[in-house]
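Entry for the shared binder. Reason: the reviewer on the internal report wants the predicted structure included alongside the sequence.
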Amino acid sequence: MFSTAKKKIALALILIPVLLVAILSLLLQLKLNGFERDMRIYLTDRGVAESEIVEIEAKRSMLPTYPVYVRFAHDPDRAYMFKPDEEAPRNFVLLESRIPPQLVDREAQNAEYSAFLEAYGFTYVKRLGMTDSSVLAENAAASKLLQAYRSVSENDSASLYGQRVHTYKFSVDHPQLRKQWGLQDQDQMEAYLMKVGDLVRGGYVEVREAQATGQKKPKYQRYTLRGDAVES
């Protein structure tokens, strides 16, 4: 009988820590799941589409205590780290030097891009979206475009290697260039701006001429922002 009691006590001493660990693990997982849910709500409330969110993963660490990693569709290999805002429940603080494009102030950004293009004489500037996001590498297509169309002459393209280039597309018009190029009203003009870091480093214009009768494909021509024709 005494032996049976000892066995029960020994079993209890084993089970209690196991149960405590299981309960603490469950509570931690529920907490992490809550952070992931709140992070998703935080993003969607700020205009980020569900399709742009690839993954949200909250973890337990020493510093910060509960980092939340988010991957976006434009760059799924990069995880942006956030932490819960201790002063504002269900809000988060970005622990990165660069803001994800999805969380950038779109109105302020559009105003910046419009001003940049208007300085070259473009009118009716309308943003159509992001067309490309890639890391700038030596001899890469993006690098060649920057070298050919960079807007800031003192830029050293080599100093930008390893940084991510975001290319944005705009519907534009330019009455003077339209006349200079002999375009018709139905011919379309689209501008592309290439942003590296916090600055627009280059840009170019593509003209799509209206398809003529019997023509198999529309004719495309590429120009610099100043109107010089270049090879496509």
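Summary line for the report: The mean pLDDT is 82.
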